[in-house]
Amino acid sequence: xxxxxxxxxxxxxxxxxxxxxxxxxxxxxxxxxxxxxxxxxxxxxxxxxxxxxxxxxxxxxxxxxxxxxxxxxxxxxxxxxxxxxxxxxxxxxxxxxxxxxxxxxxxxxxxxxxxxxxxxxxxxxxxxxxxxxxxxxxxxxxxxxxxxxxxxxxxxxxxxxxxxxxxxxxxxxxxxxxxxxxxxxxxxxxxxxxxxxxxxxxxxxxxxxxxxxxxxxxxxxxxxxxxxxxxxxxxxxxxxxxxxxxxxxxxxxxxxxxxxxxxxxxxxxxxxxxxxx
Length: 277
Prior knowledge:
The chain is of the alpha/beta class. Helices cover 41% and strands 18% of the residues. The protein has a single domain, classed as Alpha/Beta hydrolase fold, catalytic domain (Rossmann fold, 3-Layer(aba) Sandwich). It is globular, with a radius of gyration of 17 Å.
């Protein structure tokens, strides 16, 4: 994977990218993460013939970190990247965690710009909001409430990001980053704070955007979820009625929230099969 830049109206975004001339596959990372931790997974996708581009999202250095983090703006970033990468043809879109949330909104807002989509670890946002009424999910989402506090970024960064390491361990109990990956991620978060926390604060003000997701999504979409996810508990049922196009949902055994890092070959196989359908 090589390091490239995407010059957008909102600023210069940095990305990992594979060579090739095929239809772009745009991969959107989540919290608290960045593209380098997924390099093995991204390489697996590229080896299956996909032209992979994985940007550092707004709020994650070296992409812009001093700006608004309203959900609508984040979706605008994604659509601008799509236009920059493939102005005349749709792309494939794969998102994990926050990247999955942006994937749902991008598919709803600009279905003609996305050929096929995959979301990792996040059900349809309306389904997730409904699940917040379930005590087990509410307990798992405690950090979202913490991040509403004025100095939450200090808590997150304290003791060399001990809270962040704790989230990774709880969310994917059987997975550990290498020491190099962990140090690199900490460096990114250190250079980015408080921006990654601002996502959650802005989301609390974005209830008006829920209306965008009420019409069924037309983009063919695959949902993948880890059976042992400690962050977003696997929904007990799918939400097929929220999708007008082709739709499939798979729960992956022995996988947590970072399922694409835990099982890069299997998840890349599933994604590639879906995108090639």
